[in-house]
Specification:
Strand 8 and strand 9 form a beta hairpin. This protein has 17 helices and 21 strands. Helix content is 29%, strand content 21%.
Length: 570
C-alpha cells in the first residue's frame, strides 16, 4: 500500500463514513486473476433486456449478454460481429438478415439460438410488457423479426432508412432466454417482478451474476459456458454507495478500485496526491437537463387510471410550464456558462469538462450535431420581462411572481447520489429566485425518480441522459414513448422525426435532424444544460483498461492485473 493510502486509512479510522477498524476484507476466494471493485451510486433495477431503463442497468446487461452487433465509435457507429457473425441487407434496403454464431450458451448451459432474438422482439413490442424500448422496433413490419432457422434471423422494416440506424435499433439490444420465458402461461404484464429481472438473470456473455445483495453489492464472475477466452479478472464487484463523498473516500482509501463521475475539484486532488489512481475521460455522452412537464400532472394521473396511455394532446397544459414563452424565460434566467465555470472547470488547469447542450443529440455525432444553434443567453431582466408578458408578475410584493392569484412555485425532483447535481440545483434555485420563481428541491432514489418520470407525476425534473450513439430520438421525443417524460408534442417535430427516420441518405437525414433540433430548442421543453466529459477513476494496477464513449468498462473481459500487483488473492 502506498504512503498516501496508509495516511488515508488513518483518516478513515477517525471518520464516520463507512469505515471499519481494519482494511477491507478480500472478496470471497478466487482461483486466478484479481477482483475489480466498482463504487456505484445506485443499485440495479431491471436486468431483463426489454425492461432496462437506466444507463447503469444497460451497462450491466453488456456484462451479462452478447449483443447481435458489437460497436466501434469515431464520430459515427460502425459494427463488428457480436452474436451475429454476418449481416446483409436486401437490395431494397428493407430487410436485414443476421447469420448467428452457433457456439454461445446461456450460463445454465442452454444453447443461445435465433428464438432468443425473436422472443426479445415480441416482448419489446407487446404492450402488456410496457417496454421502454418499443420505439426501437416501431418501424418493423408485423411478425418481424422471424427465425429462418436456429442461426438465422430476419428483420423486415416498413420503409427504407439509414442502414446504420436501422441496424442499431435491432442489433444493439440484448437477448432474452427463450427457454425460460417462452411459456404461454407466462403473465407478461408481470415480467418486471420476474426473478430473471429482479434477482437471478441468466447470462449469454463473458460474465454471470454470482450474487446480488440488494442495496449493497452485485458480484459478477466469468460465465463458464462462454466460448471466448476466459476473462483476465476473476471477479467484478459493484458496491452500492449512494453518497458521493462516501464513494470518493472509499476510492482514496483503496476500498474500491473504480468510480465514475468524479468531480473536477476531486480529480485535481487525485492528480496531485494519489498518482496511483488513473483518471480517464469518456467524451460527451452524459447530458444534464431540466425537464418542464408540459401537461397537468393531476390530469395525466386521472387519465392514466384506467391503465391506458393517455392522449396528452387532449389533456390540459401544465399551469406553469405549458406556455413555451414561460419555458424560454426560465432558460434565460439560468446561467449555464457560470455553472460550467464554477462546477465543471478545473481550478488547477482551467480546463472545462463540459460544453453547453442544445439538444439530446450528442456533439460526438459530428455530422448531425447542429453547431448553428445559438444557446439562449443569460439575461435576468429579459427573463423578468418575458414572464410579465406571459402574465406573471409580483402583485403582492412577496418576491414571488404570480398569475391569477397563483404563485410561481414548484418542486423540482432530482436523483440522489450526485454531488454535482446538488451544487447545480442550488445554483439554479438561486438564479430562478432572482426572477421571482420559487423552487423547492426534492432528491429521490434513482428508482423512485424513474417511476415518477414514467408516471409524469412531477412538475420539473433535473436529471440527464446517457446519449445514444446513433440518431434515433424517438425515445426522448416520440409522442407515445415512455421516455418522453415532459409529454412534449409538436406536429412539426413529429413530422421531422418520421422523415429523418426514413431518409436513407445520411447527408439529407443530417439536415432533417438539424431542423428537428432547432424546432425543439425554439420550444424549450427542456432547459438544456451541458454535455459532460465525464471523469472516471481507476486504480493504476489494472492494465488493458478501456474507458470510452461506449462504456465506462468496455470489454471488461480484457482487463488484467500483473501477477505482482494482484490485490485480492486466493
Amino acid at each position: 500500500m502506498s504512503t498516501s493510502r496508509k495516511a488515508l486509512w488513518s483518516v478513515c479510522l477517525s471518520a464516520s463514513l463507512a469505515c471499519d477498524d481494519n482494511p477491507p476484507p478480500a472478496p470471497p476466494s478466487v482461483a486466478m486473476g484479481d477482483t475489480l471493485v466498482v463504487g456505484v451510486g445506485q443499485d440495479a433495477r431491471d436486468l431483463l433486456a426489454p425492461l432496462a431503463q437506466s444507463a447503469f442497468d444497460l451497462a450491466l446487461l453488456d456484462l451479462l449478454g452478447t449483443r447481435p452487433l458489437d460497436v466501434h465509435f469515431d464520430c459515427e457507429l460502425s459494427y463488428v460481429p457480436g452474436f451475429a457473425k454476418e449481416w446483409t441487407w436486401s437490395e431494397d434496403g428493407r430487410t436485414l438478415d443476421l447469420v448467428l454464431r452457433d457456439d454461445l450458451a446461456w450460463s445454465d448451459g442452454t444453447p443461445v439460438r435465433a428464438r432468443d432474438l425473436v422472443l426479445l422482439g415480441e416482448l419489446i413490442r407487446d404492450p402488456a410488457v410496457g417496454s421502454p424500448r418499443a420505439a426501437n422496433l416501431a418501424q418493423l413490419t408485423p411478425g418481424s423479426p422471424e427465425a429462418v432457422d436456429d442461426t438465422h434471423v430476419r428483420y423486415t422494416f416498413e420503409a427504407r432508412g439509414q442502414p446504420t440506424i436501422m441496424a442499431a435499433n435491432v442489433g444493439l439490444l440484448q437477448l432474452v432466454p427463450s427457454h425460460l420465458l417462452d411459456d404461454p402461461a407466462l403473465e407478461r404484464k408481470g415480467l418486471r417482478t420476474h426473478p430473471l429481472n429482479t434477482t437471478a438473470p441468466v447470462s449469454s456473455g463473458y460474465w454471470q451474476l454470482a450474487s446480488w445483495e440488494k442495496g449493497k453489492t452485485l458480484v459478477f464472475e466469468p460465465n463458464p459456458h462462454h466460448p471466448g477466452p476466459a476473462p483476465g479478472l476473476a471477479r467484478v464487484v459493484f458496491r452500492v454507495l449512494p453518497d458521493y463523498d462516501t464513494r470518493l473516500l472509499e476510492l482514496r482509501s483503496g476500498r474500491i478500485d473504480m468510480m465514475e463521475a468524479v468531480q473536477i475539484v476531486d480529480a485535481d486532488k487525485l492528480v496531485a496526491e494519489q498518482p496511483d489512481i488513473k483518471l480517464r475521460t469518456r467524451g460527451y455522452r452524459a447530458q444534464d437537463y431540466i425537464g418542464w412537464n408540459n401537461v397537468d400532472p393531476a390530469a395525466y394521473q386521472a387519465a392514466a387510471a384506467g391503465g391506458e396511455r393517455p392522449d396528452v394532446a387532449t389533456l390540459p397544459r401544465h399551469p406553469l410550464f405549458g406556455d413555451p414563452a414561460v419555458r424560454h424565460a426560465l432558460s434565460m434566467a439560468i446561467d449555464v456558462d457560470r455553472i460550467i465555470a464554477d462546477v465543471l472547470t478545473s481550478q488547477a488547469t482551467g480546463k472545462a469538462y463540459a460544453v453547453r447542450a442544445v439538444s439530446t443529440i450528442t456533439p460526438e455525432l459530428c455530422a448531425t450535431r447542429d453547431a448553428g444553434i445559438t444557446p439562449i443567453g443569460f439575461d435576468v431582466e429579459a427573463a423578468k420581462v418575458a414572464l410579465a408578458r406571459a402574465g406573471w408578475s409580483d402583485t403582492n410584493g412577496d418576491g414571488v411572481v404570480d398569475k391569477g392569484g397563483v404563485p410561481f412555485r414548484f418542486t423540482m425532483i432530482m436523483p440522489t447520489g450526485s454531488a454535482r447535481r446538488v451544487q447545480v440545483s442550488t445554483i439554479v434555485q438561486g438564479q430562478l429566485a432572482a426572477v421571482g420563481v420559487d423552487v423547492q428541491i426534492e432528491a429521490l432514489d434513482p428508482g423512485a425518480l424513474f417511476e415518477r418520470l414514467r408516471r409524469r407525476d412531477f412538475d420539473a425534473a433535473y436529471t440527464g441522459w446517457s446519449a445514444g450513439l446513433w440518431v434515433e430520438p424517438s425515445s426522448a421525443w416520440g409522442k407515445d414513448s415512455d421516455f418522453n417524460f415532459t409529454s412534449y408534442q409538436d406536429a412539426e417535430v413529429q413530422a421531422l422525426l418520421e422523415a429523418g427516420s426514413r431518409e436513407p441518405d445520411p447527408t439529407k437525414a443530417a439536415e432533417i435532424w438539424r431542423k428537428f433540433q432547432r424546432r425543439i430548442y425554439d420550444d424549450q421543453p427542456y432547459t438544456f444544460l451541458y454535455w459532460m466529459d465525464e471523469i472516471v477513476a481507476v486504480d493504476g494496477r489494472f492494465d488493458n483498461t478501456d474507458v470510452n464513449l461506449v462504456s465506462p468498462w468496455s470489454h471488461l473481459e480484457r482487463w488484467t492485473v500483473a501477477p505482482d500487483k494482484v490485490k485480492y488473492r486466493e
